[in-house]
Amino acid sequence: MKREMAPLNVAHGLVLGLFLALPWLGRSEWLPWGAEALFLIGGFQLRLADRRWNARSGALDWISHIRMAPARLLPWGVMAIVAIIAHRPQDAQAIGLAAIVSELLLYPASVRLMRQTTRPVAAAFLMILVGALGVIDGCDARLAFAFMAGIATGILWLRGPDGDIRMTVSAVISVALAVGSTITFPQILPFALPLIAVGATMALAHLSTLRRRPMPWQWDGGASSRFRRALRPLASPPS
């Protein structure tokens, strides 16, 4: 299992804190964009942490997932309350509806459908979702698609290789290109924002990971033993 996600967790907390502070900063119009980024990161974090779909089958998967839903829905409820405080009831309604649909329907369905997908298929599905986010107007639909994009990003991440320098550089470059394109052509912001969120999430996830190599016991014939690192890293486990 991937571990050591401290930078990604810190970034997630900072984005959530900024979202909660937007009404007091006089930037309530940014709430939809912040909610979209949080739904994407939330989908990634949920897929990374959830292991029920690997251990069970059938209705037990869904029942276990739904039983834990109230605790996961609490942060989304707080976000909806902040939108109400900011006098944006339409955003509050969109956040609440998208959270319920995403947590109780989209996540279980997408994970079951994509549990055996290969890395190229997961990447293609992610690109389709990012493209769809650029043309969808409804806030609630955008949030649900952002959550699915986060799940697809998590599945792509779980396919590995984690901590690979080429993947890290590619993610950073994609973020830089998206930011530069947005500055040059502000009208492409609906396309660029999900791409920035996906690239930043992948980059932070790669930077957060310490690849642990197997270290089998080696007896040296004396009173002590030592570990030796293997030459090649372990392959990433299936999601």
Question: What's the short story on this structure?
Answer:
71% of the residues lie in helices and 3% in strands. By secondary structure, the chain is mainly α.
Overall geometric form: globular
Percentage of residues in strands? under 5%
Order of helices and strands: HHHHHHHHHHEE
Q: Give me the side-by-side strand order of the main sheet.
A: 1-2
Poorly predicted runs: 210-218, 221-231
Query: What is the makeup of the main sheet?
Result: 2 strands, antiparallel
How many H/I helices? 10
How many E-type strands?
2
Helical proportion, percent range? over 70%
Average residue-wise pLDDT = 78
The helix/strand class is mainly alpha
Task: Report Rg.
Answer: 20 Å
What separation lies between the terminal Cα atoms?
A: 9 Å
List the helices and strands and how they pair.
Layout: H1 6-25, H2 31-49, H3 52-55, H4 59-67, H5 69-85, H6 89-114, H7 119-133, H8 139-158, H9 165-184, H10 189-208, E1 217-219, E2 225-227
Antiparallel strand pairs: 1-2
Task: Name its key features.
single chain, 239 residues, mainly alpha, two-stranded antiparallel ribbon, 71% helix, globular
Structure write-up:
This protein has a two-stranded antiparallel ribbon with strand order 1-2. With 239 residues, it is mainly alpha-helical. The protein contains 10 helices and 2 strands. Mean pLDDT is 78; it is low at 210-218 and 221-231. Helices cover 71% and strands 3% of the residues. The radius of gyration is 20 Å and the shape is globular. The longest helix has 26 residues, at 89-114.
